[in-house]
Structures are given as structure tokens and as C-alpha cells.
């Protein structure tokens, strides 16, 4: 890490703290040459392998943009979308891999979107999972209904 003051190629870490979200580390550093102090923030890089084979950095904004279309006309706020994108990022980071393909990102979106809005979930799933018949929709709706019945049964047992 180069010193931002004198460009010395080395620095000493004085203090390290995990950020509030737990996704980055803030380090306080000191230059042994000029004595200047500065902070750095370190995050693990997460790369997405596109269908074309191109690598690019994971972007919460791209997750939000992709889900926003499915949520059009639904009672979903920008704050809801931001929380969804954060949940997706946390889920893919927990896999422990540094490179994921777009398919894995899409799968990570489905769960939180289903919790957020079932209609938006069906819209997203129909495109993402390439529904090509009414049977595909019916199967997905049956699964949602079964989950509702299981949730109600579980709530009734309490």
C-alpha cells in the first residue's frame, strides 16, 4: 500500500476493524517514511462470469435493475430492492467462492424475491427459468401454495 502523502511503497497497520455490515475491513495505517496516517477499506472481490465468458465485478445495482422490472406495478419500494440486493450479495459471499456464474446469481435472487413479493417472483422466475408453457406457471404456483399451507400448519402448531 503506497503512502498517499509521500508515495513510499510500504505502510504499517496500526488498527483493523470489521465494518458494521461485516463485508469489509477498515485498516488504519502509518507510513514509516513520513509518519503520515491514513485509512484503507478492504473487501474481498466477487466476480461474476457472464454467459459470454467475460468476468465482471458483482454489482448490487445490476441485481436491483434486473429485479426492478419484475417488481413493476407491485408494492415494492427502492429500500426493499436495496435490502434484497444486500441479501443476495451476502448469500453469494457465504458460498466462499470468488467467482460465480450468472445462473448462480439468479438462483440466489429467487429466494429473497419470493419472500418480498410472490407476483414479482413469478415474473422473474418465468424469464429466468425460461417458462415456456402454462404448466410451468401452474407448477410454480402449486409450489407457492404448498409453501403457504406448510407455513400455516407450522404456525398453527405453535
UniProtKB/TrEMBL annotation:
Keywords: ATP-binding, DNA-binding, Metal-binding, Nucleotide-binding, Repressor, Transcription, Transcription regulation, Zinc, Zinc-finger. A zinc finger (unnamed) spans 3-34. It holds the Pfam family Zn_ribbon_NrdR. Binds 1 zinc ion. Its cofactor is Zn(2+). The keyword Transmembrane helix does not apply. The keyword Lipid biosynthesis does not apply. Residues 46-136 form the ATP-cone domain. Belongs to the NrdR family. Negatively regulates transcription of bacterial ribonucleotide reductase nrd genes and operons by binding to NrdR-boxes. PANTHER family: TRANSCRIPTIONAL REPRESSOR NRDR (PTHR30455:SF2). This is Transcriptional repressor NrdR. The lineage of its organism: Bacteria, Bacillati, Actinomycetota, Actinomycetes, Micrococcales. The gene is nrdR.
Amino acid at each position: 500500500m503506497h503512502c498517499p502523502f509521500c508515495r513510499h511503497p510500504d505502510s504499517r497497520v496500526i488498527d483493523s476493524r470489521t465494518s458494521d455490515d461485516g463485508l469489509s475491513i477498515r485498516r488504519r495505517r502509518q507510513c514509516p517514511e513520513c509518519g503520515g496516517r491514513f485509512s484503507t477499506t478492504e473487501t474481498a472481490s466477487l466476480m461474476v462470469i457472464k454467459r459470454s465468458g467475460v468476468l465482471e465485478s458483482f454489482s448490487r445495482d445490476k441485481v436491483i435493475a434486473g429485479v426492478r422490472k419484475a417488481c413493476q406495478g407491485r408494492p415494492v419500494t427502492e429500500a426493499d430492492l436495496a435490502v434484497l440486493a444486500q441479501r443476495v450479495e451476502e448469500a453469494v459471499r457465504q458460498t466462499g467462492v470468488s467467482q460465480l456464474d450468472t445462473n448462480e446469481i439468479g438462483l440466489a435472487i429467487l429466494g429473497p424475491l419470493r419472500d418480498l413479493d410472490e407476483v414479482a417472483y413469478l415474473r422473474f422466475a418465468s424469464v429466468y427459468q425460461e417458462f415456456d408453457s402454462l404448466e410451468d406457471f401452474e407448477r410454480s404456483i402449486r409450489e407457492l401454495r404448498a409453501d403457504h399451507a406448510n407455513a400455516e400448519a407450522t404456525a398453527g402448531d405453535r
